[in-house]
């Protein structure tokens, strides 16, 4: 087991180097220069065998006349390692990540409870935090994410949890729809990630304030709430996680949607591994995001709900941003009576 | 979709539950169904959400009971091995193929083509109805209209230009009967220009082998190779061209731990299984063979007894061989002397040894000489006429042997009778027509181009134009073509248009023709080159799987193929089309006088009976349709190695499988056929024989008859000439003839019955009596090491026309220019010009060609079969790794291959490989449909374009013809390769 | 109970592709799906060998293990089959398969890779034996008729052997002993965790 894992790790490492843009394997590594004249040789006695070829390359590759590069691989024992990853490790890792995140959040909720609004002079006044388009981008991405996450988890846990409940035939249908949704919703998800990048990039550039925010652990340590711009360091982390993981998921996902277009079997296995590992991390991370945006903090949800947040809450959590917004416009971005927020 | 109904009850015991290993997936089908809810009681609610592609299973146990399945046996059309195809037919539709385990030849197996042959019949890319090109557009016409118009046109041409202006091209895929009928048609039409693919594959073999020991055919059989202890495969790649033969070769190699030596410019799939590989320069076969013989003679390894008893003039060969010492051989061919010594020792000492060759030896300007040299190698080492020995010549199509035998050949009437008066008179008797009438059909030719005028009789006895030169016959100035006019019309039955070299010249010829008729299951390259606007007809012919008839495999075995299904679409079989044409021309009644014709379809069995009545010279007389059918019924009874059935079998007792010719006497005599030619260790009644005394009894005071050698049980214990009534009378054997036989002989001989021979005696009496006395009807002669009637009586090396070694041309020039087969052959001038112009500098790579396992011949048929086409989707050129690097060429990219003539170029994909050595390139010859870089798909009639198209290798091939047979040079020319 | 296996004797295989087209013919396999294929190793050089490869019907099959919908099952003859009704065409089995056996039809635009198709050892699928629906989805069921896979039955040089593992191993061993050489049972180590010891 350890040996196979090591092999697989080496494989993964090697593949990382070449996979992304699909340098296909160096299958004909030992070409003879100039075509050594084979006359006088005994081709029967010199026949190649598996052991010999495996010493040269972890997979045996030859020539095939059909124009299908992957068909030229005769034997790739790494498939066994891939299987070990998927069946022995991935379910546990996934369960650990997802359940672990839920447990941690539960503990946090248990000990810290819901972070409540701190009443202040501006409590009750509203300030527009996210306009309609921003909220559209968020919700498009997040709704896709939820379905992607569920359908993704179905690839791992469906047969273990759902199938025994509803029977294989029904499960087959569910899984088929899950696969379709996974593939088709990947597109709006990717558009959403791209939109969010464009919309919020400038507000998410890390700066010095973030260091203070992190040092203060976002207010948990000490009694003064640290300063923050439109997004505090925690939110920036979520942003960059979404952008980073989203991009990784997109790239690996696209490679699976168009299998073997850019890489060979080893690369495909690697894509699968990356997609699965990042996927579960992503789910865990987003669970925390969901928690803090809903249950974890009073008032936070409104930002993506109605788009308007309580000015008092904003001044506590995003003081610099509120100052900035108010400076921009004497009346500030807060809504005048005649204005109706774009929903 | 059709489902096959199979025998055997559904649901066997193995579907019981088991668990294998630790996975919970090890379920049997029922347990699986139960778990997956596929059986009744599954979770119906969710399961009923139907997706387009998810279908519910039917209730378990409901198996489809189809209609009755009929089994039909025919012969695979794709090479000469003669694999039996077992077809399952339901309601007249061919629904499946099963392995033909009972066939002693293929034992259930097939190659890619044979395993995909069902698609040939059901292919929707076939020609579906007769078509005519009207102003550049293909238009559908009826059969009646087609035959009418074609008949009128050729009659017009005949009246104006004489019968030789119409060229008849037959097919190696014809049945024996169709080949015979077309040759007969040619005779009735009045021309000898009736040819077929043998011209371009083994014509030089037939000429070379027949001129050595009598008959132009494989001496042994595929199965017999199992007996060999050494086999040399020279210029052949049976692993791709004859894959099923490899079953016998490799079994032999394994069982005997035999030496398998492959001599080839290319490291082929066959070479991969060799025990020794010899790489030679293309076109240096004679130096290599003489180089082997040099060691044989030098070390005294030759079979001296065999030579003295059965070979004429081996000393003449010694003189030539003495020139080929190891240094000279290596200088010319590149093969080290030490290696050839090893090969020589094995071939001469580890016997029995056999020599296998194919088109690598034959398709050269020195093709006949190559073949002769190979035969001489067998003779010198005593490797002929015994099991495990011989010249095992692998031929190309199903029936290329049979079609050659039956006279689709410009130099002979059926069964090698030649064109002499006696031959015409023999066939006139068999056909029951007047000799004078036949003569009246031929042309009188006025004096022309410095040649004398020619009478009808002379025309009748003059060989026609070969298929390799048909377009020269169109293009050349008329005074250069030795007949009244050049060729005006091509009647092409089952022959590709891309298989002849110098395609650009062929295209020129096509534009000039007054009429082009292509009768074929597919339109072929002939019809799809952008050359014609009018007067072009396509006649849909069925494949030979859709017709009855016999086929002769390479080993001379005849196999009866039965019609598997009725001809698809509007296609008709060859018999019917030839009959209808004959009827239109007014001689059908004469031609089919003794053949049953039902609804314009002549009966194949009756045609074979007519062949039997006339086929004495080659022993095609004993293979009646009844006997052949009995063989097909009893296939399983024949031995794998000896091909013989047990003597006590009531139907086929003692017979060799397929009654390999010669099968002497009338069918009632039940001669078993001849498995191994010239085998003196068997009684002639058991298939024994001697070398044929074909060339007289003595020459320059030296006997041409065998000495102290005779077949087992022979009453004559020395050499003897062929048997005529004169010889019979001397021996007193004429008394053994029955009154009835004597009456027939008297009728034939008239005043001079002494001249009636074993080959012309229609009673079969002479052969019957010969057999009783244990002698071979054709005599007991010596094989000729010196064939004085050939241009090079003892083979000498001659450099290819386009040679990469111009330095050798002065010493080894090609033959001088001369006229052959009605055409000029200016090879010498072309070679000289090439050397003078330094062609080898501009075109430094040797270009050779060959076969792919997936395709066959011109390839229209196989490239239209998606199962095969998927496996080879692009025309390619194999180029050596080093040459590719020098040119910056990567595997899989497009390159231009250009040739030294006609500014020829071909756009193909590069296959960078070490199969070919440095300075050598290889192209497969099956492609067409691209021409000099242009896709010609739109020129095919709608829906008949093959799946895969590609540049034809013959776009770039060049001049060069064998002086004896007009064989083209496809294996050695020059080219340049550049990245696109 | 028989334990069905394939064994390709590479010292006999000549890349004639009969196994490939026999399969196409028997099951009417469409263009682009190659249930069986022949790969040539060391092409053009001494030592060159060709090996015919399809689903090896592995012991403890990786495809079955990684299938997210458990559509695979193993018959009592140890033939690994799957249900196209359950398969969702995710492609994981291809990544896990050491032999490149699973094939997917392209049924439309991106992502609509069809249901997996692979060598059935000429044993059909979960539908009832020899039914029309079985033929349409999986091809013919020769095993149910007491016949072996057509690829092996039609192999031109009898290189490809199919049948009970013990028996074909025995045939192979005898061959190797007789002829004195053998490049081994290709893929057996990976598929069955055993080799043919001579």
From TrEMBL, chain C:
NCBIfam families per record: FDH3_beta
Pfam family, one: Fer4_11
Designated name of the protein: Formate dehydrogenase iron-sulfur subunit
PANTHER family found in the cross-reference section: PROTEIN NRFC, PROTEIN NRFC HOMOLOG
Entry coiled-coil feature ranges: none
Domain 4Fe-4S ferredoxin-type: 4-34, 78-107
InterPro entries: 4Fe4S_Fe-S-bd, 4Fe4S_Fe_S_CS, ET_IronSulfur_Cluster-Binding
GO-annotated molecular function: 4 iron, 4 sulfur cluster binding; metal ion binding
rRNA-binding is among the record's keywords: no
Keywords recorded for this protein, A-Z: 4Fe-4S, Iron, Iron-sulfur, Metal-binding
Cited SUPFAM superfamilies: 4Fe-4S ferredoxins
């Amino acid at each position: 087991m350890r040996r196979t894992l090591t092999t697989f790790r080496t494989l993964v490492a090697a593949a990382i180097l070449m996979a992304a843009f699909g340098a296909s394997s160096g299958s004909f590594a030992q070409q003879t220069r100039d075509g050594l004249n084979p006359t006088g040789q005994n081709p029967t006695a010199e026949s190649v065998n598996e052991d010999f070829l495996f010493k040269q390359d972890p997979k045996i590759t030859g020539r095939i006349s059909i124009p299908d590069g992957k068909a030229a691989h005769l034997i790739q024992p790494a498939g066994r390692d891939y299987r070990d990853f998927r069946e022995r490790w991935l379910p546990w890792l996934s369960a650990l990540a997802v359940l672990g995140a839920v447990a941690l959040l539960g503990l946090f909720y248990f000990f810290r409870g819901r972070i409540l609004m701190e009443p202040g002079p501006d409590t009750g006044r509203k300030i527009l935090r996210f306009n309609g388009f921003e909220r559209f981008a968020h919700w498009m991405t997040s709704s896709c994410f939820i379905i992607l996450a569920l359908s993704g988890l179905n690839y791992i846990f469906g047969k273990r949890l759902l199938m025994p409940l509803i029977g294989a035939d029904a499960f087959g249908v569910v899984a088929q729809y899950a696969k379709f949704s996974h593939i088709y919703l990947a597109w709006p998800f990717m558009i959403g990630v791209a939109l969010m990048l464009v919309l919020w990039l400038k507000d998410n550039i890390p700066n010095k304030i973030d260091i203070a925010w992190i040092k203060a652990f976002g207010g948990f340590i000490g009694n003064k709430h640290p300063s923050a711009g439109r997004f505090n360091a925690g939110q920036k982390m979520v942003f960059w996680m979404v952008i980073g993981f989203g991009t990784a998921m997109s790239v690996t996902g696209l490679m699976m949607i168009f299998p073997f277009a850019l890489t060979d079997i080893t690369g495909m296995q690697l894509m699968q591994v990356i997609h699965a590992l990042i996927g579960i991390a992503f789910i865990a991370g987003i669970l925390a995001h969901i928690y803090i945006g809903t249950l974890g903090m009073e008032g936070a949800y409104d930002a993506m709900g109605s788009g308007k947040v309580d000015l008092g809450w904003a001044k506590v959590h995003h003081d610099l941003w509120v100052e900035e917004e108010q400076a921009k416009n004497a009346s500030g971005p807060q809504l005048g009576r005649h204005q109706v927020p774009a929903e | 979709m059709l489902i096959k109904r199979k025998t055997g009850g559904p649901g066997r015991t193995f579907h019981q539950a088991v668990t294998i290993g630790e996975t919970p997936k090890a379920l049997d089908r029922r347990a699986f169904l139960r778990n997956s809810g596929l059986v009744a009681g599954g979770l119906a609610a969710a399961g009923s959400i139907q997706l387009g592609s998810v279908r519910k299973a039917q209730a378990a146990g409901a198996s489809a009971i189809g209609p009755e399945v009929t089994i039909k046996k025919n012969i695979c059309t794709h090479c000469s091995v003669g694999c039996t195809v077992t077809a399952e037919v339901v309601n007249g539709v061919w629904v499946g193929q099963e392995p033909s385990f009972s066939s002693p030849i293929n034992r259930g197996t097939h190659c890619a083509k044979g395993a995909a042959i069902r698609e040939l019949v059901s292919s929707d890319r076939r020609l579906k109805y007769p078509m005519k090109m009207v102003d550049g557009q293909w238009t559908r016409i009826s059969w009646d209209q087609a035959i009418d118009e074609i008949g009128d046109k050729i009659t017009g041409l005949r009246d104006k230009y004489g019968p030789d202006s119409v060229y008849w091209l037959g097919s190696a895929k014809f049945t024996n009967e169709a080949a015979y009928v077309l040759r007969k048609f040619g005779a009735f039409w009045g021309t000898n220009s009736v040819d077929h693919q043998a011209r371009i594959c083994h014509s030089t073999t037939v000429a070379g082998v027949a001129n050595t020991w009598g008959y132009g055919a494989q001496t042994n059989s595929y199965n017999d190779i199992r007996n060999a202890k050494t086999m040399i495969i020279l210029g052949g790649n049976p692993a791709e061209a004859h894959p099923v033969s490899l079953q016998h070769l490799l079994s032999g190699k394994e069982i005997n731990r035999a030496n398998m030596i492959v001599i080839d410019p290319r490291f082929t799939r066959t070479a991969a299984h060799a025990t020794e590989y010899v790489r030679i320069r293309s076109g240096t076969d004679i130096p290599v063979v003489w180089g082997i013989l040099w060691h044989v003679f030098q070390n005294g390894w030759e079979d001296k007894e065999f030579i003295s008893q059965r070979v004429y003039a081996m000393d003449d060969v010694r003189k030539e061989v003495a020139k080929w010492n190891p240094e000279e051989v290596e200088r010319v061919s590149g093969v080290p002397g030490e290696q050839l010594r090893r090969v020589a020792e094995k071939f001469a000492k580890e016997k029995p040894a056999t020599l296998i060759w194919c088109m690598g030896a034959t398709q050269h300007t020195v093709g006949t000489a190559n073949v002769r040299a190979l035969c001489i190698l067998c003779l010198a080492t005593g490797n002929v006429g015994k099991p495990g020995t011989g010249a095992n010549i692998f031929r190309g199509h199903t029936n290329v042997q049979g079609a050659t035998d039956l006279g689709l050949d410009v130099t002979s009437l059926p069964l090698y009778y030649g064109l002499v008066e006696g031959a015409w008179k023999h066939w006139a008797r068999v056909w029951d027509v007047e000799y004078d009438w036949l003569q009246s059909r031929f042309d009188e030719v006025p004096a022309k181009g410095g040649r004398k005028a020619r009478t009808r009789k002379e025309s009748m006895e003059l060989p026609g134009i070969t298929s390799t030169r048909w377009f020269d016959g169109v293009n050349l100035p008329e005074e250069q073509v030795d007949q009244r006019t050049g060729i005006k019309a091509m009647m092409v039955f089952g022959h590709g248009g891309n298989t002849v070299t110098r395609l650009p010249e062929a295209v020129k010829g096509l534009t000039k023709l007054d009429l082009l008729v292509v009768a074929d299951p597919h339109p072929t390259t002939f019809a799809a080159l952008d050359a014609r606007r009018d007067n072009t007809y396509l006649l849909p012919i069925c494949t030979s799987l859709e017709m009855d008839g016999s086929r002769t495999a390479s080993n001379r075995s005849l196999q009866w193929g039965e019609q598997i299904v009725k001809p698809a679409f509007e296609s008709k079989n060859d018999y019917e089309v030839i009959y209808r044409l004959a009827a239109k021309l007014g001689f059908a009644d004469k031609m089919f006088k003794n053949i049953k014709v039902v609804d314009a379809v002549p009966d194949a069995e009756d045609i074979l009976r007519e062949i039997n009545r006339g086929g004495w010279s080659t022993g095609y007389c004993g293979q009646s349709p009844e006997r052949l059918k009995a063989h097909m019924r009893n296939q399983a009874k024949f031995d794998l190695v000896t091909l013989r059935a047990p003597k006590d079998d009531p139907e086929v007792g003692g017979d060799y499988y397929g009654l390999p010719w010669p099968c002497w006497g009338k069918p009632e005599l039940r001669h078993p056929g001849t498995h191994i030619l010239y085998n003196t260790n068997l009684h002639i009644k058991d298939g024994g024989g001697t070398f044929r005394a074909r060339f007289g009894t003595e020459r320059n005071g030296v006997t041409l008859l065998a000495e102290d050698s005779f077949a087992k049980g022979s009453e004559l214990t020395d050499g003897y000439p062929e048997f005529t009534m004169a010889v019979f009378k001397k021996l007193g054997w004429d008394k053994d003839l029955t009154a009835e036989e004597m009456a027939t002989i008297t009728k034939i001989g008239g005043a001079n019955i002494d001249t009636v021979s074993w080959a012309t005696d229609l009673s079969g009496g002479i052969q019957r009596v010969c057999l009783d006395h244990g002698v071979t009807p054709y005599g007991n002669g010596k094989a000729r090491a010196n064939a004085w009637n050939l241009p090079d009586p003892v083979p000498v090396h001659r450099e290819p026309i386009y040679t990469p070694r111009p330095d050798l041309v002065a010493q080894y020039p090609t033959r001088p220019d001369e006229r052959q087969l009605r055409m000029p052959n200016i090879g010498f001038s072309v070679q000289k010009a090439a050397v003078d112009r330094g062609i080898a500098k501009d075109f430094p790579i040797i270009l050779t060609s060959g076969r792919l396992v997936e395709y066959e011949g011109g390839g229209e048929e196989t490239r239209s079969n998606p199962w095969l086409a998927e496996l080879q989707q692009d025309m390619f050129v194999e180029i050596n790794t080093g040459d590719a690097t020098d040119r910056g060429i990567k595997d899989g990219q497009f390159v231009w291959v250009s040739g030294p003539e006609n500014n020829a170029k071909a756009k193909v994909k590069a296959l960078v490989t070490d199969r070919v050595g440095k300075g050598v390139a290889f192209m497969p010859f099956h492609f067409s449909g691209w021409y000099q870089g242009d896709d010609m798909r739109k020129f095919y009639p709608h829906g008949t374009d093959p799946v895969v198209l590609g540049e034809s290798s013959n776009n770039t091939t060049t001049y060069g013809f064998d002086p004896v047979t007009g064989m083209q040079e496809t294996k050695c020319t020059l080219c340049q390769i550049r990245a696109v | 109970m028989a334990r069905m296996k394939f064994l390709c004797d590479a010292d006999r295989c000549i890349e004639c592709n009969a196994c490939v087209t026999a399969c196409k013919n028997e099951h009417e396999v469409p263009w682009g799906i190659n249930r069986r294929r022949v790969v040539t190793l060391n092409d053009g050089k001494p030592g060159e060998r060709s090996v015919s490869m399809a689903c090896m019907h592995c012991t403890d099959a990786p495809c079955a293990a990684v299938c997210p919908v458990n559509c695979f099952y193993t018959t009592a003859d140890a033939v690994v089959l799957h249900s196209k009704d359950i398969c969702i065409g995710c492609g994981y089995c291809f990544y896990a398969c050491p032999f490149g056996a699973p094939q997917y039809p392209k049924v439309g635009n991106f992502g609509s890779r069809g249901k997996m198709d692979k060598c059935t050892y000429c044993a059909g699928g979960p539908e009832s034996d020899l039914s029309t629906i079985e033929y349409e989805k999986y091809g013919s069921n020769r095993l149910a008729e007491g016949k072996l896979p057509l690829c092996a039955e039609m192999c031109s040089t009898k290189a490809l052997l199919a049948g009970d593992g013990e028996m074909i191993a025995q045939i192979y061993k005898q061959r190797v002993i007789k002829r004195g050489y053998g490049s081994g049972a290709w893929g057996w180590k990976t598929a069955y965790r055993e080799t043919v010891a001579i």
